[in-house]
Amino acid sequence: MNETIPLIRTENLTMRFGGVVANDNITFSLREMELRCLIGPNGAGKSTFFKSLTGQQIPTSGSISFRGQPIAGKLPHQIARMGIGIKTQVPNVFNGLSVREHFWLAARRKSMPKELIRTVDEILDLTRLGDVADRIVGTLSHGQRQWVEIGTVLAAKPELILLDEPAAGMTDEETFRTADIIRDINRTRAIVVVEHDMAFIRQIAKTVTVFHQGRVLMEDTVDAVLADQRVRDIYLGKKVAA
Amino acid sequence: MTKNTALLAQLAALVVVIVLIALVPGYFEIFTVMQLTLFASMAVLALSLAFIWGFGGILSFGQTAFFGLGAYAYAVAAINFQDSTPAIACAILVPALFAVALGYFTFYGRISDVYFGVITLTVTLILFNVANSTSGQEYHIGDAQLGGFNGMPAVPTFNAPFDPSTPLYPEQGWYVTAGALVAVYILLRVLLAGRFGRIVVAVKENETRASLLGYDPRLIKLVAFTIGGAIAGLAGALYVNWGAFISPNAFSLSLSAEIIIWVTVGGLGTLIGPVIGAVLIEYIVSSIGSQQVVNANLVLGAVLLFFVLLLRRGLVPSLQLVVVELWHRARRAPRPKAEPSAAATPAGSK
Amino acid sequence: MDIYLILGLNVLNGVASLFLLCVGLAIIFGMMKIVNLAHGEFIMLGAYATVVATNAGVNIWISMLVISPLFVGLVGLVIERFLIRYLYGRLVDSMLATWGLSLLITGIVTTIFGNTIKGVQTPLGGFQVGGYSSSYYNLFIFAMALVVIAIVLVVMRYTRLGLIARATMQNPGMSAALGINPDRVYMLTFAAGAALTGLAGGLIAPVSGITPGMGAAYVAKAFITVVGGGTAILSGSLAASSLFGSIDQIGSYLTTPVYGQVIVFTTAIILIRLLPQGISGRFFKGQL
After folding, report:
1. I want to staple C53 with a disulfide (CB 3.0 to 4.6 A). Which of B41, B117, B256, C58 is the partner?
2. Which chains have at least 3 CB atom pairs separated by less than 8 Å from chain B?
3. Domains plus CATH for chain A?
């Protein structure tokens, strides 16, 4: 693989909603196998950015390329087939299907029939949802539904995984385990994580990109970012110190 | 119940149904057999909507468009070929192709649910109007006069496959119609148990999630809608075979409403429910028609309102809940946490 | 030349009738997002109210302009209290329930009056344009459409009630926080929409066949007009009724009335496909 081509790259990506500029001229690049954290206060444009990357909305201007191929304007399912998986901010699951069916639906595209059952079992193990594998997801707790969605994304074996607040609503122990899992997955593929929990970010991140008011404020190592006065200012009152 | 015993129970039920179908002509008078034939063809029509609405989440207010097209396609082909075999194929193909065109137009145009309802309703009205305005000699397809609002009388009924000289007796017509009902039911069950079925339900449950997993919701809906159109078309052919007659009323809005009532009453998200709903409602309507005391519309309207407001799950899922409840009480076991299945969650209640 | 004058009058009449027939629905759908499939039956009830009252000796103008809107408005109020208010936010259920309601109303009217009823005479008489005749009543319908536009405009823009209604439609939670009771606003809006529909029914009573099933002929027409028009109640339904009314009349003139309808329906479907937000969503954003 040519090392100079980034896994995903956006150039001057801009998304406007009426008069509101949700993403303003974002140029962003991620290498293969990289683990990147996006931080920024609510409304900084992180989820909007994810929506453009996954085709849920078409950017007003600018370009997105995935391994050098332009993807802006492609439909969500086409982008998903190219290998981008996303866990969205609001739990986005099939409430009427069982946990097993979720993983099966996700794994079916990439796995041969023989490995399909194995993949599903692996993901059930990983997410510790084996006991509720045949329960209808609509009847599970919020935390469990988070895991269902994370597992569904993983089962699809995407090349790039976008996680929008994966630890939201989880207990400390679960958050810790999520960080573990993320590091584990990162051994084979690239991940971008949006999170507010700084302890979580310290645990997993190498490089952090800070979004503020629709723009990229800075991009540096986790220590440099957390030491930065501007970042402290925009996060005033949040648990930066943690 | 394990999977195997469940499968066995279903096979046993199937055998019972087939035996019952075989016994009907021996036990009932010809009038009743004809009546049951009509109900069976309506039940096939009910299955078409049960599938696309209950499992595909596509609420078509104009399922009669496909029913009527199937009926007219059958009538025109049967008159021209003087053989029902290719005519039945036409009755399935023509509405299926129409469903592809209409589905492509709407699903790929990202038309929302309400607008989809309005469009299907309007399309049905267009067909109704067109069919009504075909009176006069100049409106014919081959040898078949379309006949405007009078419709087409004396349409050839079913004959033995590829043998026009051997028309089927009404009893045989019953076997064919009831057999078609069972076949369509089994086909849909197999379809829903398999890969495609899961994907269809997934798209119904959450279109965004399905597309983020790489499934194209437009295509999945299009295929489901087309299958529904083909089944409704088959129902149209069965209906013409029953009465040897077709009129623009096959496209009527009141029939469209009835299909929705069958599915709502029987239970959205099941297949057997709408079949029961169709037979029950049609039986009630025909009983009302013969005694002229209460108005059929009044009863249908009241029934629909009752189910939408008070028994949203419909008969079959409600009955299932009651049975499960009694079962647990009988065993004095504490009731497990409510686990509504996919089937018991009405698509419209989200 | 005369034929074009008459055709022009017919177009005006077609547009005005369509607007009157759909404005009540536009208010209910645009403001409350309730798809009222019993709209056709509201029209039918308005027509029956006029016919029954006039046949009982009431002056026809009073029947049409007072009794029909009052009666159907009251019916709407009752229906909102006993049915519709349980269905807010349940779009599909509201469609199913109102369809059930439409069958129920049709059934009740059939039970009471049978399948036919003696109609009323068209008032005002006719006039001649060259070799063609038209009636003053057509001009009256056009005038009534203008009156209704004026009333809706004034109520929505210049009264407290209109402001509250507009605010509630934009954001029910916010206006509840301001101390407005959305429940009451919805109730009154539904009743007002029903009353306007009753008025339309009364107005078409002298010029159409009155049967319990007549509503079915109007519901689809009214719906495609409202959907084609989009969310802006007045400008949307005006634009869509102008478009569809003209196409209907001109199409009927060039072919037959049946094909005129087919042309309208086909145009509407294509329009909805091209402009899913309706005409007003594209051209009159944020207007009334």
Report:
1. C58
2. A, C
3. 1-83+160-179+190-242 (3.40.50.300), 90-157 (no CATH)
